[in-house]
Amino acid sequence: MSKETVTIIDNRTGKEVELPIVQATQGPSVVDIGKFYQETGLFTYDPGFLSTASCDSAITFIDGDNGILQYGGYSIESLAEQSNFLEVSYLMLNGELPEKEQQEKFSDIITHHSMLNESLRNFFHSFYHDAHPMAIMVGVVGSLSAFYHDSTDINNPRHREIAAHRMIAKMPTIAAGCYKHSIGEPLVYPDNNLSYTGNLLKMMFSVPCEEYQVDPVAEKALDLIFILHVDHEQNASTSTVRLAGSSRANPFACIASGIAALWGPAHGGANEAVLSVLEEIGDVSQIPKYIARAKDKTDSFRLMGFGHRVYKNYDPRAKIIRTMCHEVLEKLGHRHDPLFELALRLEEIALKDEYFIKRKLYPNVDFYSGLIYKALGIPTNMFTVMFAIARTVGWVAHWTEMISAEGQRIGRPRQLYVGPKQRDYISIDKR
Ligand code: CMC
Q1: Mean pLDDT score across all residues of the chain
Q2: Residue 30 phi/psi, 5° resolution?
């Protein structure tokens, strides 16, 4: 079978450049432009990566136009309905769903690696008392290689596996530690009798002087949110992890770089920003004013939790989590709280508004996850930390895939230089 190609004609010289097409198993194939510069002396230019694939990957598939998200070929709908966070984590790391024994072994490993090195626990107390939990998390995760250097040989597959397991297992303990430190309460040790999310809830909300019962509604809701947030292929934070990892930095440092990238309000910080916007709007009567501001091009205000770079019709995760959001509000008795009424009214109005319809700005996953977190009593500044716990699985899976790939090279984007041409240095007294 002849290979498909694309031919580009350089109109300056008339030279034809034939570029191979590399076939995808689903979704758009790509034009391999690896030799483009050599052939034409030109770089390609695509800020924001609107048309550029940065790598090949077998982990997650997204079809933004049709609202499709699959992990390892399984639809997000089927995983959300039938699977659980740890099983999905196994799938992400291994490419296949586990058999019963494999699942039990994996759960056991993750459960039994949740404790932190005791010196690392002390590290939390060195942060300023009102530090943002994301700032603490970036710092603590970045420091992990100092505590676990026995799993930082990136050329050793077993080291890579141990580092992956450690990251997934310890993230809830770190997240809860960030929270506990910020409210001046003692850090709570993990409890191996609890589920992944039950343990997280206990480490966040229990105190040593009282009994704590995990609320099954909260436990289930968090498990679902975590499944939905596990991975989203080459988003900003995952691309950051890959780029950092391409220099062969240790995995803990790479995940810390991903956490930093996730923090921004256009990415993982959006769930926190959703609540800030809702609080700013304050009352249902103010919605029209804020919708008008969101449409005003001279105003930088955006309705956080609406819109997505990839999903231009709807976000499949938002569809799943919307149902859970309504269920949680109902079950926990928050349905008629003013803030939630405001959010649901905003959702209703924006879905009918011409501006939002025309630009395909639908509520995204963060709109609803922010509301669920709020209903569960999780403070706003912890929302992105919660996202980071789940996304660690995706980051680790992508990092492992990249490092294990044959012929892996350092990522080194090119640029279009638009600065001054060469000029002579003028000494300071003559400027
Ligand atoms: N409120 C008001 N207008 C908006 C919004 C919004 N939230 N989002 C996009 N627009 C408008 C934008 O002004 C532009 O209008 P026009 O065509 O008239 O100039 C048009 O919609 C396209 O926007 P864009 O910025 O070119 O779209 P993008 O694909 O580059 O950005 C986005 C996607 C998610 C960054 C953006 O929609 C946004 O800032 N949303 C709010 C932040 C948010 O909720 N982020 C979480 C995304 S989901 C979590 C994740 O996967 O990381």
Answers
A1: 93
A2: -125, 155
Residue ID of nearest Cα to ligand 1 atom 51: 267
* Residue 341 pLDDT class (50, 70, 90 cuts): confident
The token duo for 313 is 């019709």
Give the distance (Å) from ligand 1 centre to CA of residue 207.
40
Check residues 338 and 4 and name the one with the higher pLDDT: 4
Q: Measure CA of the first residue to CA of the last residue in the chain; give whole Å.
A: 66
Atom of ligand 1 minimally distant from the CA of 359: 21
Using a 6 Å cutoff on CB, does residue 360 contact ligand 1?
A: no
pLDDT at residue 334 in the model? 79
Model pTM score: 0.91
Q: CB atoms < 10 A from the CB of 271, how many?
A: 29
* Nearest CA owner, ligand 1 atom 30: 309
- Cβ–ligand 1 contact at 302 (below 6 Å): yes
Identify the pLDDT of residue 2: 60
Distance of CA 328 from the midpoint of ligand 1 (Å): 27
- Binding site membership of 225 for ligand 1 (Cβ less than 6 Å): no
For residues 23 and 385, what is the distance between their CA atoms, to the nearest angstrom? 37
From the CA of 232, give the closest atom in ligand 1: 51
Q: What amino acid occupies position 197?
A: T
Distances (CA, A) of 391 to 84, 235, 368: 15, 11, 17
pLDDT per residue as tens digits for the range 107-145: 999 999 999 999 988 889 899 988 999 999 999 999 999
